[in-house]
From TrEMBL:
The gene is nagC_4. InterPro entries: ROK. PANTHER family: BIFUNCTIONAL UDP-N-ACETYLGLUCOSAMINE 2-EPIMERASE_N-ACETYLMANNOSAMINE KINASE, ROK (REPRESSOR, ORF, KINASE) FAMILY. It comes from the Bacteria. Belongs to the ROK (NagC/XylR) family. The lineage of its organism: Bacteria, Bacillati, Bacillota, Bacilli, Bacillales. This is N-acetylglucosamine repressor.
Length: 390
């Protein structure tokens, strides 16, 4: 027989699971009546009534007008007050901080962005993050309506612990960002790596919604990536899984040292920062040099295409995904040239049995600050033990 404390814990968990299941159903299926909630959850009418009363008290849920025409006592439809609940999303990037205040219908209420040439110390990014949050807070109509802060971070993130493990561009190592922000704002704070977050959103309701096994690669300032296997985000033993930027891709005259300590990593050339640092090219003007037939630019582009194509071909062979999704600034700017070549090389080099793979790309890299706000909404309606990630 379990100890009393264990029983209390499991009762509490069961209660919170039931409560969250009801809340999520009102959000996804509302307007919905108490009777329908009982039918869909298998909970008793009394339990539903108790749970709904708590939600009404907390102002999470609203009773709407009963539908006319039905006979007898009309059931009262319930909806979540999604236009009176808000989330702040912050994109913490190497070159900028971008924030968005959104409501629970994912509508953007206010945006704010600060460009940052360089972070001078490890507390410098936090100063900009605070400035951004403080600005957005002024646009929350009523205190108490803000339900949390979500952060998308370019770097290795331990989402469970709420810490940034390593981000060279942000000068963060073992940085307890969640703890710092929660003590400043007294709100729940959620963190996720930028590519993982993008992949989660695309898997939930985007281009990867029908996919079970997929890979996302974000060719951006650096290179980020995410692996989803059997609908689960795979983060690895130390959160490095999907960091395709450190795939060994270059040799010979294109071999450059990487900030990770190794050499020849894909990010040393096939990224916005790599093109600049080791190739000497700005992403904005690289395309016109290719158009003009600049021999060095053309040779570098060919080397990048070959290296990235073979790397992705190997990834497809190893993970056997049904979809691969490309995104990031490099894809936004050079995608029209790069993607058809990549596609040819990939399909010429993967095993026949992998050729059902679908290669997709996003027309433009999504705004990660609104995605980070979405993280708050997802977590708000999360049912314990059913969470998609982690
Ligand atoms: Zn590296």
């Amino acid at each position: 027989m379990p100890l009393k404390s264990e029983r209390t814990t499991s009762n509490k968990l069961l209660k919170s699971i039931n409560q969250q299941r009801v809340l999520r159903l009102i959000y996804t299926d509302g307007p919905i009546s108490r009777v329908e909630l009982a039918e869909k959850t298998g909970l008793t009418q009394q339990t539903i009534t108790n749970i709904v009363n708590r939600f009404l008290e907390d102002d999470y849920v609203l009773e709407t007008e009963p539908v006319s025409g039905s006979s007898g006592r009309k059931p009262i439809p319930l909806i979540v007050r999604s236009n009176e609940m808000f989330a702040i999303g912050i994109e913490i990037a190497v070159k900028y901080i971008r924030g968005a205040l959104i409501d629970f219908q994912h509508r953007v209420i206010k945006e704010f962005k600060i460009d940052v040439p360089v972070y001078e110390s490890k507390d410098h990014p936090l100063d900009f993050v605070r400035q951004t949050i403080d600005e957005l807070l002024q646009h929350v109509p009523k205190t108490g309506q803000l339900k949390g802060i979500g952060c998308s971070i370019q770097g290795l993130v331990d989402a469970k612990q709420g810490a940034v493990i390593y981000s060279p561009g942000l000068r963060w190592r073992e940085y307890p960002l969640r703890e710092k922000l929660e003590s400043l704002y007294d709100l729940p704070v959620y963190l996720e790596n930028d590519a993982n977050l993008l992949a989660l959103v695309e898997n939930l309701n985007g281009r990867l919604a029908g996919s079970v096994n997929n890979i996302t690669i974000k060719f951006d300032y650096g290179i980020g990536g995410a692996i989803v296997l059997n609908n689960q985000l795979c983060t690895g033993a130390t959160h490095v899984a999907g960091e395709f930027g450190h795939y060994k891709a270059f040799a010979g005259k294109y071999l450059h040292k990487c900030h990770c300590g190794a050499s020849g990593c894909m990010t040393t050339l096939a990224s916005v920062s790599g093109l600049k640092r080791n190739g000497g090219y700005a992403i904005e003007t690289f395309g016109s040099l290719l158009d003009a037939g600049d021999p060095q630019a053309v040779a570098l582009f060919a080397a990048i295409e070959e290296a990235a194509g073979l790397a992705i071909s190997n990834l497809i062979t190893i993970f056997n995904p049904d979809h691969v999704l490309f995104t990031g600034k490099l894809v936004d700017v050079l995608g029209q040239r790069l993607l058809p070549l990549l596609r040819n090389r990939i399909f010429a080099t993967i095993p026949d049995s992998c050729k059902g793979v679908i290669l997709e790309h996003l027309p433009i890299t999504p705004d990660e600050s609104t995605l980070a706000g979405g993280l708050v909404i997802n977590r708000f309606f999360d049912v314990p033990l059913e969470s998609f990630s982690m």
